[in-house]
Amino acid sequence: MNYFSLILVTLLLGTAGYSQPYDPDKVNKKAKQLFDQAYERAQDGHTASAIGLLQQAVKTDPGFADAWMALANLYGSLKNYKAAIDCSEKAFAIDSVYTLNEKLPYSVNLAGLGRFEEALAAVNVLYEKKKPANPLTLERLLKRKMNYEFAVDFANKNPDKNYVFAPVNLGDSINSAESEYFPCLTVDGKELAFTRKLQHKNEDFFFSIKKDDSTWFKARPMEGNVNTEQNEGAQNISQDGQWLVFTGCYRPDGMGGCDLYISYKTGKGWSEAINLGPGINTDQWDAQPCLSPDKRELYFVSRRFGGYGGSDIYVIRQNENGKWGRPENLGPDVNTPGDEQCPFIHADNQTLYFTSDFWPGYGDEDLFYVRRSAHNTWTRPVNLGYPINTIDREGTLFIAANGITAYYASDRADSHGGLDIYKFDLRPAIRPMKTLWVKGRVTDSKTGAGLPVTAELVDLDSNLVVTKVYTDENGDYLVTLPVGRDYAFHINRKGYLFYSGNFSLRGGELDSTYEKNIQLQPIEMNASVVLNNIFFDVNRAELKPASQTELDKLVKLLTENPGLKIEISGHTDNVGKPADNMQLSLNRAKAVTAYLVSNNIAPQRLIAKGYGETKPVAGNQTEAGRARNRRTELKIISR
């Protein structure tokens, strides 16, 4: 029995026992015949034909309440909410008691247009005047009531009258008569990847490159061997554009219905996909992968045993040796007895978006976000709100590094066919942190050869590692930089002095991205490095807490190389008296060596020297130059 006939039976059964001014037996016979024909057309799935017959019926007999209600429900099934509302209100005007059951579908159509206060009022009338006796109908009513109450409360607590939800179709360079979905971009926003369903059955990956004018070149199939005659879908490309993870179902090398696969970018395109194996995949449904920006965490959805509900979100982390650990359920702060799906971790590596049909929301399946705390736990899920979330099912979301532009798939009125990819701006309250990035190559300072190394980004306030990435064999790296914090940036490789840099991204409008090609100094006589993350207050020699990470790097370096003897030197700008600057620089060098001694480094391995303003590395005419001159250095004086 289809939607039309279910509604019709409900209406007819629900009116039994009433003595109403409206009498369905007194309806015009011609109108009744048209109504019966519409019923048959609707049962056969011919909705447009059924609507046409019902329109003739109400024209023949404008007082035909059942025909108006049937029209309302058919329009509602087509999401033509305005027409559905108009038809319901015509029925209410004929007889408000006979048509009382129509208040529930009427409320759904009101909510479809975002008129949640009116929708709530409609179900409250039904609940108070005629509470359904059927338990399933009552459950449906109460669920809608709860959804509308949430929507009204959310609107009252989150007023944003200036927010305009205006999705823009990406155009025929990206979209086609087929369906396109699961959009994802590289961190620089220059490459867009997505899934396209070909001939309504086979899924393949496509990509496009952004032009200088911000339009897109014509999308084409991904190069290499990742696309096959089998289905490939729900893909995610790493922020540096080098890894592709996706879902493959019912493949010869599969372990269950759907498994997770990975492909690597090569000089000839994408490699043949590799099943991620039994440590990740199970004999259950495993799908919808998403890589963290440092590629050390892989989020995905699974229906494996031991979860909290139907489908849960899991994360698996890469070990120091490059192997994946064991999957971990994100726990009850995210997962519920319902279905959580479509995880997307933003480039800030702190904001996770996903869908859920359980957390309080607007209806079927809403989009939520959580933020990672300093202790690697997640905040309580926050609903993205109307009009991003609606009474219908919302799907996957991808948000660009700027934290503003969001991409998603929808079948809106201007679709080229099926699902198309759109972009829109997020309202400020639900944005992730704007994220910049630094990229470059690490080489040996003597040979110029590329070096595979470890790169770490550390929050200077908490001294916690925010990002840790491993370069490729050529030493190429990309590290994302969420704005709003100050960071230490370290490059480490055994046998070399570590590189010390920092990024001050706490305030102001920042739009820069960085390119740093770094030469590492082999550990040898006279090799030196500036310790850019040793901090002091003005004219003071007490180490600031933000120096902790750098100091511990020094301890590790000296512990791993027990034969090293080093000089720690302090330097100042030329502001103030030369003698005072000399003493200040010496005291600062001594503060560093004192910390090292307190951490079991033998004092005979350390020399503290102060050079004051005598060895500038930049001019003292500008603040930027003076800042470079105020520094602490390490120099190897014996091995």
Task: Explain this structure.
There is one protein chain. The protein is α+β, with helices and mostly antiparallel strands and 639 residues long. It folds into 4 domains: 3-157, Alpha Horseshoe (Serine Threonine Protein Phosphatase 5, Tetratricopeptide repeat), CATH 1.25.40.10; 168-430, TolB, C-terminal domain (Neuraminidase), CATH 2.120.10.30; 434-522, Immunoglobulin-like (Sandwich), CATH 2.60.40.1120; 526-639, 60s Ribosomal Protein L30, Chain: A (2-Layer Sandwich), CATH 3.30.1330.60. The chain starts with a helix and ends with a strand. It is built from 11 helices and 33 strands. Strands 6, 7, 8, 9 and 10 form a 5-stranded antiparallel sheet that branches. A hairpin with a 6-residue loop joins strand 26 and strand 27.
Q: What coarse outline follows from CA principal-axis ratios? A: elongated
Number of domains: 4
Named at the architecture level, the CATH assignment of the largest domain is 6 Propeller
- Rg computed from alpha carbons, rounded to a whole number of angstroms: 32 Å
